[in-house]
Amino acid sequence: MEIKLRKREKTRRWPWVIGGILLLIGLWHFFANIYREEEKKLRVQLRETIKETFPKQTAEFLQTFGLFYFNVNQELSDGEALDRKSVILVHGLDDPGKVWQNLAPKLAKEGFSVWLMHYPNDQPIVESARLFFKELKGLKKLGIQRISIVAHSMGGLVSREMLTSPEIEYSRSIKNREVPEVATFIMVGTPNHGSQLVRFRVFTEMRDHLARLTKGEANWLGAILDGAGEAKIDLLPGSRFLMELNARPHSEGVNALIIAGITSPWDENDINGWLDNLRQKVSDDHQKQIDALGEYMISMSHGLGDGLVTLESTRLEGVPHRTVDGTHLSMIRNITESSRRIPPAIPIIVYHLKNGE
């Protein structure tokens, strides 16, 4: 009898334990949302403390970041590389590098000199932009005068920060011939106004470090050295970083384009076609209901966006905007390397790079 009672008591405790854990998580998110910048400072301090405590491991890990030349099937001399148009590909948050598995070889075959920008993608976006700018100075020393940038997801924010930050002073550096001039800038699925789904980035963080493990780049401090989650705070809608970035004017002389994905099974043309057909079949008394239905369906398709970033979050006033069918990843790369499918954003990117300058 006593054993049964003990079992019942243990069974009753579990809901309270789980409820308590969920409550603590909820309270953490509640207060973290209120004190975002304070949380960000704590994360920065943690990362800096780890760097100071483990300088050797830090130095080894940081060697995996910077600009790396992409070459496929052939080796080019420095002179041959300089003769080609140079394109820099900038990945997004917690990306292990596979996002360019279709675009990079395509650009190389089309005659472009392709560079891959790797950076600690969980650190503050401002720090990533400074690293990007530093790497551009190295390209200038190689003799490269003009470049184009194709950036996926958060990589677009890193690039925008580099181009417009008053501390970095890209425009002044161009005049002083310290860095190559950016001719074309293409953003793919960039959350220019943030994304709430970044709160669940723990799963992409795991994928990132598993990919590093398979490439032999694993570091037991990697989860902190590549950033302590500060980028997540920058990416939340209404963050201080996004407010400051979006308050600046666009960089002059840069031919920019935004490509956004839509996962909805219908687009605006489909919806408007259905509504026009429906209007012809109902009385005038029901036209307002038809209009309301159309607005709702369009808002739903825009709200879905690419599954991670809403359509409205990608938009920037004054920047041309294109949409393609696809998710945040499928619009730019295939899930498997053996697939012969052409991701819908790639032809647009290639055309714009060839004809947009």
Order of helices and strands: HHHEHEHEHEHHEHHHHEHHHEH
Mean pLDDT: 79
CATH superfamily of the largest domain: Alpha/Beta hydrolase fold, catalytic domain
What is the CATH topology assignment of the largest domain?
A: Rossmann fold
What is the molecular shape? globular
- Counted by DSSP, the helix tally is 16
Class based on secondary structure composition and strand pairing:
alpha/beta
Question: What is the count of distinct domains?
Answer: 3
Largest sheet: 7 strands, mixed
Strand ordering within the main sheet: 1-3-2-4-5-6-7
Strand content: 5-15%
Helix content: 40-55%
Q: Would you count the extended β strands for me?
A: 7
Gyration radius, to the nearest Å? Answer: 24 Å
Top-tier CATH class of the largest domain: Alpha Beta
CATH architecture designation of the largest domain? 3-Layer(aba) Sandwich
Low-pLDDT residue intervals, each spanning 5 or more residues: 201-214
Spatial separation of the terminal alpha carbons:
83 Å
What's the arrangement of secondary structure elements?
Elements: H1 2-34, H2 36-53, H3 55-62, E1 66-70, H4 78-83, E2 85-90, H5 103-109, E3 112-118, H6 125-141, E4 146-152, H7 154-164, H8 170-175, E5 181-188, H9 202-214, H10 222-225, H11 230-235, H12 240-246, E6 255-262, H13 268-279, H14 287-304, H15 311-314, E7 321-325, H16 345-355
Structure, explained:
The protein has 3 domains: 2-55, no CATH class; 57-261 and 322-355, Rossmann fold (3-Layer(aba) Sandwich); 268-301. The chain starts with a helix and ends with a helix. With 357 residues, the chain is of the alpha/beta class. Helix 5 (103-109) links the parallel strand 2 and strand 3. The chain has helices at residues 2-34, 36-53, 55-62, 78-83, 103-109, 125-141, 154-164, 170-175, 202-214, 222-225, 230-235, 240-246, 268-279, 287-304, 311-314, 345-355, and strands at 66-70, 85-90, 112-118, 146-152, 181-188, 255-262, 321-325. Residues 201-214 have low confidence and may be disordered. The chain is globular. Helix 6 crosses helix 7 (154-164) and helix 13 packs antiparallel against helix 14 (287-304). It is 51% helix and 13% strand. It is built from 16 helices and 7 strands. The longest helix has 33 residues, at 2-34. It has a 7-stranded mixed beta sheet with strand order 1-3-2-4-5-6-7, sandwiched between helices.
